Amino acid sequence: MSTVDICMNTICQQRHRQMLFTIPPARYTPPSPYVQFPQFTQKQFDMRRKAEILSYNATKTNTKTNNLTKKQKWVQLVSGTQQATSYTTVIQRTTAPYTYIDACGNLTYNKFDQLFDIIKPSYDCSLSNDLIPTPTSSSGIPGPIEYLIRDQNVPLYNYATNIDNYSILQSDNKDLWNLYTSDNLSFTTSISNLYGTLVIRQPVDQYAYSFTIQMPISLFVSGTSNNPSFQPMTDLSLNIQSVSLQVYNNKTRVSLQTHPAFQLNTTTLPSNNTGTATFSNNSAFLKYDIPASPKNAYYFYQAYVGMLSISNIYLYTEPGYIYDFYLTFSINAPFLNKPSYAALYGETTKYGVLCNASTSLHSIGGIENVSTNNGKIPYTKNSISGI
Asked: Taking the model in full, what pTM does it have?
């Protein structure tokens, strides 16, 4: 049996990177009733909950809120206590005329000074028992006495349910791996940059996989003249010469057991055993002309040149392993050697490759007679797969 010697620093570094790419659990954010129902106050919500709890029948008492016996309701009615409101504002005073007929048959009207109270017939006396204020002392609640009503227009909230997600629940993520990358990653010539990070997840079911990465790429170039140009500049071009892939684990380069295979659109690119593929001059290029301008001019050109595929990337896939993919592009820009161009645009010219280009549309300004390579397959988003 062989012994794997891994130093503590490597283990700690791997653990630190794993924590950077953890999938956070669902955050529990209960809905606030004060946001959902701003027309009600906290006191109304509290009263509604108290009244709802006290409305349930007890086993040995009848003194719960709004649940009096028939005898207690009768005492409440005849005593006048607990009535919903005073009738002083809902009655009218009137006099009752008295008539009598004397012996001669004459009809006589008399008015006495006696007054009668008559409830207005338009007043709604159908008041629900739920809206009768009931003191908390009737339910044996200690403390200062408060009068409760059970207003069912105030909603109840925070019901006991089993559908809320808490952080102690298991995650449902079943991905075997995740590739973390970004759109419009800029690569300048001969500079190695990080393309993305591959994180192997717990559900992985094989000890090793052969991965394939696909990405849309674009070429871009821009520049600003430092003086007016009275002569057009023609036959300007740039093209990709080569691309190489390097894989790292904990800042240590991984020796791939198989040589990666490169393909641009439908054309297989020749590659060597170091993971570098070579492009032909017509594989991925831009051509353009800059017209004459009487003032300082700015130009830019970005064009989709196709889908780059890198396959046969054989990696061990133990859960928790993290791999970093680095790409290096070599770009040929012969127009930089033209004295006329170098004098006007040399110091301001920027060019390179955009990986994971966000669009296949061309972006053009300040130039003319543009062209790019043919045979481009339809644009798709970047992806990774394994077999």
From this structure: 0.64
